[in-house]
């Protein structure tokens, strides 16, 4: 993926990893469009980055997604990169969960169905571009789960699998399909912002952008901090790391 000269739509772009990516891509000369539920976060981000644009999006709202895609295409006809970043993470006590599974269903709708639906809605447009890319944000926890957040980890594992199939099916098109695999990053997702064990957001974003500047871009974008989780099974220490991660 060429890291400049694009029109990039980033979901969940008003905070955390999404905002970090948005600001870095913006600085590289891309037209960046951020989308999300919280208008205040979107406005604060665009105000701090003149030229950046925003669109309101509730990724869980299935009927609104198609209209959102049409609006995005109409306002930004050069749109050629989609970053499926929006996500939520909530702890779940499976022995005492809600009868209606509200948290689990919201996580699935946001983290899995949202990216699948938005990708489907934008795919015909992306196929018309001379070059295009889809970046799906999964997690190191897709490969080695944190038991406290079972549905979150399951959705990220599903995004990994979906990305593999999407890449295979689009191999004859001009659309590059990438997977960004973050480690535990210092954002407001769960308690990361205040946890010294989390990777600093600025360091994570800087390492990601450096990888994207390398040609050709690897299908999986893995910073060094995530490789312990990502390759635990391949390295034969999955059980030991799983036990350590879930000891508490």
Description:
- By secondary structure, the protein is α/β, with parallel strands linked by helices.
- The protein has one domain: NAD(P)-binding Rossmann-like Domain (Rossmann fold, 3-Layer(aba) Sandwich), CATH 3.40.50.720.
- The protein has nine helices and seven strands, in the order E-H-E-H-E-H-E-H-E-H-E-H-E-H-H-H.
- Helix 4 runs parallel beside helix 5.
- The longest helix has 26 residues.
- It starts with 6 loop residues before the first strand and ends with a helix.
In short:
By secondary structure, the protein is an alpha/beta fold.
H and E order: EHEHEHEHEHEHEHHH
**What share of the residues lie within helices?**
40-55%
> Unreliable segments (pLDDT under 50, ≥5 consecutive)?
none
Total domains:
1
How much of the residues is beta strand, in percent?
5-15%
Q: Which topology does CATH recognise? A: Rossmann fold
Give me the secondary-structure category: alpha/beta
Number of helices: 9
CATH architecture: 3-Layer(aba) Sandwich
**What's the story with the biggest beta sheet?**
7 strands, parallel
Q: In angstroms, what separates the terminal alpha carbons?
A: 40 Å
CATH class: Alpha Beta
What is the overall shape?
A: globular
Query: Can you say what the CATH homologous superfamily is?
Result: NAD(P)-binding Rossmann-like Domain
**Rounded mean pLDDT score:** 95
How many β-strands, per DSSP?
7
Q: What's the Cα radius of gyration? A: 17 Å
Neighbour order of strands in the largest sheet: 3-2-1-4-5-6-7
